[in-house]
Amino acid sequence: MNAAEAIRARHSVRSYSQAKVPEAALRRVLEAGRLALSARNRQPWCFIVVREQSVREAIASTGHFASFLAESPLVLVGCGNTKTSPKWHVVDVTIAMENMVIAATAEGLGSCWIGSFDGPKVKELLKIPEDYNVVALLALGYPKEKLRPHATRERKRLGEIAMRGEFGIPFG
Known about the structure:
The chain is built from six helices and four strands; from the N terminus they run ααβαβαβαβα.
């Protein structure tokens, strides 16, 4: 699957089988994050792989829309170093995690981006140092059910979201 196909195939998966994510697939997903671009090449990220059920349950309990994290076989916690990149760590970690989402899709894995969590509680739970912030969480695993094709999902037309030269002139 190429990048464009993975982008089209990607879904937010909130229901996972308990099949273990192979270490080789997980390494390829993490490698996609490692290779991401970052401001001034600071690479201000750290990704914590959480497999333990009790820890996933504790993380899930910190967010209103995060309960399914307890069901996913693993959770990736994206952290950004505020000293290395005070201004851009959030953007940089976000770019790296999107790379991981696309790589996970190419591996046949499902994922879901989680922004609903209590950062200080997650930091304490995972012993994250003071100079790092938790930027986002990713549920990761094999979808419990077969995903439907994206052709049925409504998306805005390109001319609604892209402009040519200046605002108000649709690209297309």
